[in-house]
């Protein structure tokens, strides 16, 4: 786990009112709000009078894999759709497109939009019209990030998940992240979740004070913490009165970013996880949440250990290992786009073995 390198801070009291609306932000709203004067609930309401937002509920969210034809590397849209439906049938709370597993860095704007559109249409056809889609929209400029947010909404996305820019890391000032996320959230047609993933952005690790401050913005409705810092998660969840399995709280979604600390996230007051492992074993990931909610802590702890061992294979192999595991255990998945390497026979065996114990549990659920 990464070191706890953000300074502890006192947890303020903001006195949210518990309203059920996601309201339209005024320019520079994060500076004009005296406190958390409104709820961050993601109830199905219309932000811009033409876009219905499906609610985010605590639970497991899957950052879905993008699938490609083996030779041409064109998008395999049929598999994109069938995989999304498999995830929904397993009981996940929602899907995320254009994440690391979705190879967003390898897709053009039009391909990103096509993946999200295909995912939405497949879910709707299968009767999962209520399942929300979060769309990854990180880019290096504020302008392009906002453009991606607009395209995400037009393609059927309900929320956007935004990484901080990192290319000019050495030139950014302490206020730069506040300004970036404020500008993006104010301009985005759909609500924003902050994505803290230091490994993907040159080590930029947004501290709890910054996220708590940004959470005052009426269109910043959650965060994903792939940093693995559960202390940070605890501080943010407490300060924002995050939604939990048993309490709607403010509606703010404080999400862990990996399946290997699902139980820790829930115990610490978080809202659930957005985890790549669920691409392989969605039912097992959901089961941890269900056991915790039912008060079966011993059983939840035992299953969490199995999930954590399986997640280690996913963490080590990234999208290459995840796709390899899908092929080995479920007969589909294929390969990543070049220059991602194809796994060797030895690596295929390693990934298959790494997921074997957890897949055995999945097949019993």
TrEMBL record:
Source taxon at top rank: Eukaryota
Pfam families: DHDPS
An annotated Gene Ontology molecular function: 4-hydroxy-tetrahydrodipicolinate synthase activity
Database matches in CDD domains: DHDPS-like (cd00408)
Annotated protein name in UniProt: Dihydrodipicolinate synthase
Lineage: Eukaryota, Fungi, Dikarya, Ascomycota, Pezizomycotina
């Amino acid at each position: 786990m990464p070191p706890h390198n953000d300074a502890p801070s006192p947890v303020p009291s903001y006195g949210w009112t518990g309203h059920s609306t996601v309201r339209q932000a005024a320019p520079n709203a994060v500076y004009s709000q005296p406190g958390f004067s409104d709820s961050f609930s993601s109830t199905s309401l219309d932000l811009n009078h033409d876009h219905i937002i499906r609610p985010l509920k605590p639970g497991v969210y899957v950052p879905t894999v993008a699938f490609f034809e083996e030779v041409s590397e064109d998008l395999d849209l049929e598999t994109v759709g069938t995989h999304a439906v498999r995830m929904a049938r397993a009981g996940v709370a929602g899907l995320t497109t254009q994440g690391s597993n979705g190879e967003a860095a390898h897709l053009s704007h039009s391909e990103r939009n096509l993946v999200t559109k295909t995912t939405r249409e497949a879910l709707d056809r299968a009767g999962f019209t209520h399942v929300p889609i979060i769309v990854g929209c990180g880019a290096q400029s504020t302008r392009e990030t906002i453009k991606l947010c607009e395209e995400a909404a037009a393609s059927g996305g309900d929320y956007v998940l935004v990484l901080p820019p990192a290319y000019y890391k050495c030139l950014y000032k302490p206020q730069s992240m506040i300004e970036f996320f404020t500008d993006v959230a104010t301009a985005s047609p759909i609500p924003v979740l902050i994505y803290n993933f230091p490994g993907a952005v040159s080590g930029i690790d947004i501290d709890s004070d910054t996220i708590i401050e940004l959470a005052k913005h009426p269109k910043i409705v959650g965060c994903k913490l792939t940093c693995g810092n559960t202390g940070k998660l605890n501080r943010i969840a407490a300060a924002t009165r995050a939604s939990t399995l048993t309490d709607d709280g403010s509606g703010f979604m404080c999400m862990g970013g990996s399946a290997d600390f699902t139980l820790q996230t829930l115990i610490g007051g978080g809202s659930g996880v957005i985890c790549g492992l669920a691409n392989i074993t969605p039912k097992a990931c959901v089961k941890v949440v269900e056991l915790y909610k039912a008060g079966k802590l011993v059983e939840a702890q035992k299953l969490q250990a199995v999930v954590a061992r399986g997640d280690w294979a996913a963490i080590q192999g990234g999208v290459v290992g995840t796709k390899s595991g899908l092929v080995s255990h479920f007969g589909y998945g294929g390969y990543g786009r070049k220059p991602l390497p194809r796994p060797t026979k030895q690596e295929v065996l390693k990934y298959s073995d790494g997921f074997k114990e957890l897949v055995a549990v999945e097949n019993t659920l």
